[in-house]
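Translate structure to sequence.
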């Protein structure tokens, strides 16, 4: 027997609702992708020194936080970019990826077969289920190790304190993005509510864009949290999905007993021609990249002293949508979607 301990990045990934995927082309495609990813994880590019097959996912131990983050984002991208419709799936297949850092115990038997154990490995398994589909979530400890390694091409944005499954407590988690994706998806932590300008002047383009970006980040955060709460309220019958896409957009879906109840798309526009705004569309024909139709939008206005959001008021929900800060605009958009879920 050969025992050793090593501080490492602990990566778990698992396909979302894989038990609902019937045998056939989609299942075979999924198996091929997982097998390919496990082989890639062991290459020098990612440097995993242990890989444990978990069926529709795997555990990987990686010597550095940076390479662990790169592997996690690679896994995410493979699932995001795969042509699932081409193999017969009606909707994209998602994968959750979780990252932690800790001491792993590796035991090899006489044949050289290894197994891993330890409290850090067990805890790492609780991070992955907390991630949203096709996203990478990491712990505070992982981010601390990542920061000490000095990599600047990947960033983590807090999604708040999240309840972990199986009575594992709660922990602040961070969603990981590449540097250029942060500039595009703009999920930075919202800034404190802006101060009134002491001298009347027009807001700069930078101030307006930052205001809209902050509100979009808050909208993402609220939708993630509220969807999780909704599913937790009746996990045997209610399922939810949050899907994030490039170019600052996401979809939210609610299923009851496997049937789609309601869905919406939210995206951000920073083009002067269309105004600096966050747009909302809900319906059964949501196309993530067709922006020709919307039900509502909140757009930035400037009165010379401060920025605020106005809504079009199209859903007619009776709320004051004429003078909103970032958080109020985000909550307003969630309330519109909530009404569609509740059926009024």
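Result:
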């Amino acid at each position: 027997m050969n025992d050793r301990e090593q501080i490492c990045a602990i990566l778990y990934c698992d396909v979302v609702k894989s038990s609902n995927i019937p045998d056939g082309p989609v299942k075979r495609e999924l198996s091929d992708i997982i097998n390919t990813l496990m082989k890639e994880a062991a290459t020098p590019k990612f440097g995993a020194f242990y890989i444990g097959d978990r069926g529709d996912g795997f555990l990987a131990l990686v010597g550095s936080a940076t390479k662990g983050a790169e592997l996690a984002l690679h896994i995410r991208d493979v699932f995001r970019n795969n042509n699932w419709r081409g193999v017969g799936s009606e909707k994209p297949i998602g994968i959750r990826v979780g990252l932690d850092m800790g001491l792993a115990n590796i035991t090899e038997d006489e044949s050289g077969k290894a197994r891993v154990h330890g409290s850090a490995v067990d805890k790492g398994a609780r991070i992955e289920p907390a991630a949203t589909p096709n996203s990478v979530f990491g712990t505070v400890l992982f981010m601390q190790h990542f920061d000490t390694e000095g990599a600047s091409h990947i960033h983590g944005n807090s999604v708040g304190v999240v309840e972990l499954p199986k009575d594992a407590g709660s922990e602040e988690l961070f969603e990981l993005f590449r540097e250029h994706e942060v500039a595009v998806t703009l999920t930075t932590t919202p800034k404190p509510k802006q101060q009134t300008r002491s001298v009347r002047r027009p807001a700069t383009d930078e101030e307006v864009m930052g205001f809209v970006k902050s509100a979009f980040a808050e909208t993402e955060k609220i939708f993630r949290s509220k969807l999780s709460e909704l599913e937790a309220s009746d996990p045997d019958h209610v399922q939810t999905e949050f899907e994030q896409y490039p170019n600052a957009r996401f979809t939210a879906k609610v299923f009851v007993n496997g049937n789609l109840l309601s869905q919406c798309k939210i995206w951000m526009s920073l083009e002067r021609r269309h105004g600096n705004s966050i747009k909302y569309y809900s319906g059964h024909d949501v196309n993530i990249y067709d922006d020709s139709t919307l039900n509502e939008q909140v757009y930035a206005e400037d009165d010379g002293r401060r920025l605020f959001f106005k809504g079009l008021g199209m859903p007619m929900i009776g709320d004051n949508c004429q003078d909103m800060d970032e958080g109020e605009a985000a909550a307003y958009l969630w309330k519109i979607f909530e009404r569609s879920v509740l059926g009024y």
